Amino acid sequence: MSSLVYCIHYKEGCKWTDELRKLQGHLNTCKYDAVPCTNQCAAMIPRVLMEDHLFYTCPKRRTRCEFCNKEFTGEMLEGHVGSCQYEPVFCENKCGFKIHRRFVTNHRMNECAKRLVACRYCQKEFVYDTLQNHTAKCPRYPLPCPNRCEQSKIPREDMESHLKEECPSVSLNCMFRDMGCKFKGPRFALEQHMEESTNSHLILTSDLVSRQQHQISTLQNALQNLTLNTSGVLIWKIADYAQKMAEAKSKEGYELCSAPFNTSQYGYKLMATLFLNGNGAGEGSHMSVYIRILPGEYDSLLTWPFSHTVSFTLYDQVVSQEKPCNIVESFVPDPSWKNFQRPSKEPDSLGFGFPRFVSHENLKKQSYIKDDTIFIKVQVDSSKIVTV
Fewest C-beta in 10 Å: which of 172, 247, 290, 310? Predict the structure, then answer.
């Protein structure tokens, strides 16, 4: 019993060492030895930790809530923490506001900037701090009529239709405004104006149609000038030959007219005409071809009478290596003939050409007709001029 021993709590930090017979006496005072909690919570606590236990962790301790200052036992405080109505907590809507728990419900319902609220006009829900922006463009927000009519509150989305179709005070133009009617007044007056102004509106419409017809004619002439052939050479394609020939035989004086063409950009304006079943001496047996002089824009600058040589060529559409047998006829204008004088209007006469240009019998030879189509070239030779 006289041998030296260490305290059983030497690992916890006790440095006591003495005879074995004195160990029990030491343990009665050793601060590292566990003893029952003095609050009778049934926990065994080292003497050195007893003060901390009694103050902080003992379930039987008496303590106060740091928020509401009420006194609780330790185990009751654990249930109280997290539900204390005086504890400051952040708003669940993440608005950044921190308030006592007891005020959370009222804040979330009535004060929170992130709470959901219904628009009083369209009933859709919005976050409170965006409601003002929504109201500025809410389709159901009531607006006063800008014309101060009897209907004072009109939903924003209905305003356009109200002004166009309903508002009695809106100032409207007459629907014939673009035609020249200068009336402008309230809707009820417009209805009366429309009833009383039928004749004047009809006159305005007629005048507008006349102006538009003149504009269309001007544009057509301008377009024709842009697309006008000014080379002095016309290649004329006559398709559907069989159909047109049958029509020519059934209708007396059946005439085909080419598109107009010029001898140069500022030259004479000409047009070729064709009688498939013949004309005059060639009627019923030949194809007749003629040239007409048309009134042109630059006639006052040209030399009259017309004196250029004109030739007509019917193409042989042969595909072999053989030389094509084209039919060519030409004439030199007679200066004394009236049809070569400057035209004053669209000519009614035939012009000048060949009533027996090619016989129907010869047309069937060679390849003048191919794929139900013939080609005729009309060429004005400005180098061959008759001296007057």
Answer: 247
Lookup result for tokens 């669209």: 346
Lowest mean pLDDT among 157-166, 342-351, 365-374: 342-351
Q: With the C-alpha atoms ordered 103, 105, 110, 113, is the resulting torsion angle positive or negative?
A: positive
Phi-psi category of residue 326: left, alpha or beta, with phi > 0 → left and psi -120 to 50 → alpha = beta
Statement to judge: residues 260 and 343 lie in one domain:
yes
Same domain, 200 and 289: no
Q: Which helix (H) or strand (E) holds 385?
A: strand 374-385
Give me the half-sphere count of Cα atoms (radius 13 Å) on the Cβ side of residue 50: 17
Tracing tokens 């628009």 back to the chain, one arrives at: 119
Residues 232 and 381 reside in one and the same domain: yes
Cα separation, 94 vs 98, whole angstroms: 10
CATH number of 280's domain: 2.60.210.10
| Beta-carbon contacts of residue 92 (< 8 Å; ≥ 6 apart) | 104, 108
Nearest to 194 by CA among 210, 180, 207, 181: 181
User: For the chain, what is the domain count?
Assistant: 3
Distance CA 315, CA 237 (A): 10
Indicate the range of 161-165, 179-183, 338-342 predicted with least confidence.
161-165
Q: Same structural domain for residues 193 and 301?
A: no
Distance CA 232, CA 268 (A): 9
Among the listed residues 194, 159, 155, the one whose alpha carbon sits nearest the alpha carbon of residue 177: 194
The DSSP string of 236-250 is: EEE-SHHHHHHHHHH
Q: What angle do the packed helices 198-227 and 187-196 form, to 10 degrees?
A: 80
Pairing of strands 256-257, 233-238: unpaired
Backbone phi and psi for residue 173, each to the nearest 5 degrees, phi listed first: -85, 150
Q: Are residues 377 and 365 in the same domain?
A: yes
Dihedral sign for Cα 157, 159, 162, 164, please: negative
CATH number where 19 lies: 3.30.40.10
Domain that holds residue 19: 4-60
Confirm whether 211 is domain-assigned. Answer: yes
More confident residue, 155 or 62: 155
Residue among 153, 195, 146, 192 nearest 169 (CA): 146
Q: What are 98's strand-pairing partners?
A: 90
With respect to residue 120, please indicate whether it lies within any of the assigned structural domains. no
Q: So what's the pLDDT on residue 225?
A: 66
Higher pLDDT, 63 or 274: 274
